Amino acid sequence: MELRDLPSVDELVRDVDDPLAVDAARLVLSRAREEIRAGVDPGDLATRLTRELEAARRPSLRRVLNATGVIVHTNLGRAPLAPEALARVQDAARGYSNLELDLEEGERGSRQDHLAALLRRLTGAESALVVNNNAAAVLLALAALAEGREVVVSRGELLEIGDGFRIPEVLARSGALLVEVGTTNRTRAADYERAIGPETALVLRVHQSNFRVVGFTELPRLAEVAAVAHRHELPLVDDLGSGALGDVPGEPSARESLAAGADLVCFSGDKLLGGPQAGIVAGRADLVERLRRHPLQRAVRVDKLSLAALEGTLQLHLEAPARIPVLRMLGENASVVRARAERLAALTGGTVEETVARVGGGALPLAELPSFACALDESLAAPLRVGEPPVIGIVRDGKLLLDCRTLADDELDEVALAVAASRG
Ligand SMILES: *Cc1c(COP(=O)(O)O)cnc(C)c1O
Fold first, then answer.
1. Domain 65-75+327-422 belongs to what topology?
2. Best of 157, 160, 208, 209 to mutate for ligand 1, by most ligand atoms within 8 A of CB?
3. Least C-beta-crowded within 10 Å: which of 67, 77, 107, 423?
4. Helix (H) or strand (E) holding 330
């Protein structure tokens, strides 16, 4: 085909009854012109117009199949929800809800009441507050408890989470003043002791979530830092990052941290908890109440869909934690993952390869989870990514690895169909 053979926009859309057709046709023709100039045949333009119109109507935010082996993958939306949690979302969102209505008394209630008892049971805390995410939880805690005053933090914990969330900057935004203690690799309880003065409002611990300092290192145990803070009648706030509600080896749980002396803990809803995006603050009732009354609380409040999903997820933590996808993927035996990889390899004509999956989400950065992948030709990576549904794997040594730790059994047929479609 040559440039002069291309139809006009009007000609291309003549039989197409679609309000988006003209814009789509312009796009198709401009791409076709470029291809012809580059010596490539643009193919059937009517088919391309149909595809373009389909693409224009496809939602931008879509489900993808995660075959990266990274369980809490921030770019892929972090934690997938359990069906039970999703059912709560559907139910709360379909119609009206008692979000802020006390049904017993017929009076105004608080959206925080729905999860209070569950969070108390799961963490042992006196009280809890749910906000939009953990970054907001930390910001709110600092603003409510330390605005205009000093916050003591170890230099080894002044970290950046990713996407520009840096502890020193969050501290500055909250209106608190940072007082650094210790060094990058070593901080002792006595360092905290020396830094505390009349202007100190609280001691902050930040879990070294996404990195590790190795070698000549020292950090006091939480209980030692708590003892120092309490000797000066100061609260200790522990930003756990991911946090865990149950037993995840190597990751501190909210309950352990509170039991060791933290007065408040802050953690994410969509990391190892396996729920929706949310930030949870749990601990001493008087401190939680100060957060609840702070004007920022209204700006960072959690929405009803997240609350519904969180309630469903927390209920599962109590009753059936293995039904939470993140915990299932984390705890699954390697032989089960291998069997899944074998099935996928049989369906796609790939081979089974041993690999290593990761927790992700800034939790347990060094943990290597034994895993198995279905290996395919590297050239399939791009078509699978732009297919429907998109399948995201990792490319290594000239091969595309589809890690089966982060795929569910009922997703294998879909992956196989996507692979077949990508081979054209
Ligand atoms: C992830 C993380 C945060 C931020 O949590 P979000 O829920 O993503 O806002 C804060 N602190 C630590 C230590 C983290 O690991």
1. Aspartate Aminotransferase, domain 1 (3.90.1150)
2. 209
3. 107
4. helix 325-331
Task: For a ligand 1 pocket test, name from 133, 138, 165 the mutation site with the most ligand atoms within 8 angstroms of its C-beta.
Answer: 165
230 C-alpha to ligand 1 centroid (Å): 25
- Ligand 1 atom at minimal distance to the Cα of residue 206: 13
Q: 114: Cβ below 6 Å to ligand 1?
A: no
Q: 362 CB less than 6 Å from ligand 1?
A: yes
Instruction: Report the percent of the chain where pLDDT is more than 90.
Output: 87
Q: How many residues are there in the chain?
A: 424
- Ligand 1: distance of its center to the CA of 272 in Å? 11
Alpha carbons 343 and 334: distance in angstroms, whole number: 14
The answer to whether the CB of 140 falls within 8 A of the CB of 291 is yes
- For 174, the 3-state DSSP assignment is coil
In CATH terms, the fold of domain 83-320 is Aspartate Aminotransferase; domain 2 (3.40.640)
* Cα of 80 from ligand 1 centre, angstroms: 17
Are the CB atoms for 67 and 399 separated by under 8 Å?
no
Quick check: 363 pLDDT over 80? no
Find the range with the poorest average confidence among 186-195, 209-218, 246-255, 267-276. 209-218
Tokens of 367: 């943990």
Structure tokens at 95: 């119609």
| Contact yes or no for 159/211 (Cβ under 8 A) | yes
In DSSP terms, 151 is beta-bridged to 178, 202
Percent of the chain residues topping a pLDDT of 70: 100
| pLDDT greater than 90 at residue 119 | yes
Q: Which helix (H) or strand (E) holds 400?
A: strand 399-403
Q: In this model, does residue 209 exceed pLDDT 80?
A: no
User: Could you give phi then psi for residue 362, rounded to 5 degrees?
Assistant: 70, 20
pLDDT of the residue at 128: 98
Substitution candidate for ligand 1 out of 211, 268, 277, 280 with most atoms within 8 A of CB: 268
- Joined together, the tokens standing for residue 45 give 């333009």
Structure tokens at 294: 């702070």
Model pTM greater than 0.85?
Answer: yes
The pLDDT value recorded for residue 250 is: 83
